[in-house]
Specification:
It contains 9 helices and 10 strands. It is α+β, with helices and mostly antiparallel strands.
Length: about 240
């Protein structure tokens, strides 16, 4: 009798574990991730690089947008939140072509600051994000530039770890420290949460996407506008005496 009760108890526990794992798997799949047989979590591509440019001004004024690495002054009158994937071609075009012009005209003069929020599209871009976060301050953005410049080199290979370790070394980071960053589960979870925030609260389904914010209001831009369009948007949100 005792043996039967023990077996029933074990069966109930096992059933509970199965239900939990199934529920957790569904929860993670809704967020764009899958559970692997070994228990690890992999990002799947349920978002994509965006070819279209559009705007939607419907953003709650009290919505707290995640705060990633910052380029520019805390006293800037306009803040641009950039939701970007290192594997996204249009993100690379913005970072390497448009951003330097915006930086020269606005960011370096203290008028605009840019906040980088990770929105990885696949496993490789998640690893690229983890590598970039090995660095802080302006060096984060220098490494980001390298990742965008070498995007074709690492984005299409099945395992880019050796390439990422090389990039880390070229930027003065020891292999041991780089490997720790690439396996940083807490940072990966933080990146996952930022990505989910963009999907759930801002309707982001492709990269890049931007939120422009100032005391005049907020606006979201889906896709990568050219420099002239960005310039006009910034002018729209700058105080009159700063134009």
């Amino acid at each position: 009798m005792r043996l039967e009760n023990f077996i029933k108890k074990c069966s109930s526990i096992a059933a509970g574990i199965v239900v939990f794992l199934l529920a957790f798997g569904i929860y993670m799949s809704l967020k764009g991730y899958v559970m692997n047989p070994d228990g690890s979590i992999t990002l799947v591509q349920n978002a994509q690089a965006s070819d279209k440019v559009g705007t939607d001004g419907k953003i709650a004024p009290n919505l707290l947008i995640p705060w990633g690495p910052q380029l520019g002054s805390n006293k800037a009158q306009v803040t641009i939140y950039e939701f970007s994937s290192f594997a996204c071609y249009h993100c690379a075009q913005f970072q390497l072509k448009t951003l330097p012009k915006l930086q020269e005209k606005y960011i370096d003069k203290g008028l605009v600051r840019l906040i980088f929020d990770d929105f990885p599209l696949d496993k490789n871009s998640m690893q690229a994000s983890l590598l970039a976060h090995c660095f802080s301050g302006n060096k984060f953005f220098r490494v980001a530039d390298m990742l965008y410049e070498k995007q074709r080199e690492w984005s299409s290979v099945s395992n880019p770890k050796d390439l990422f370790l090389k990039y880390a070394y070229l930027n003065g980071l020891r292999q041991e420290d780089a490997e720790k960053c690439l396996s940083d589960k807490e940072k990966a979870e933080e990146i996952m949460q930022i990505r989910q925030f963009g999907i759930a609260n801002l309707g982001i389904s492709g990269t890049p996407s931007f939120v422009i914010s100032s005391v005049k209001g907020r606006e979201i831009i889906y896709g990568a506008p050219n420099y002239e369009t960005f310039d006009a948007l910034i002018q729209k949100y700058l105080p009159e005496d700063k134009k």
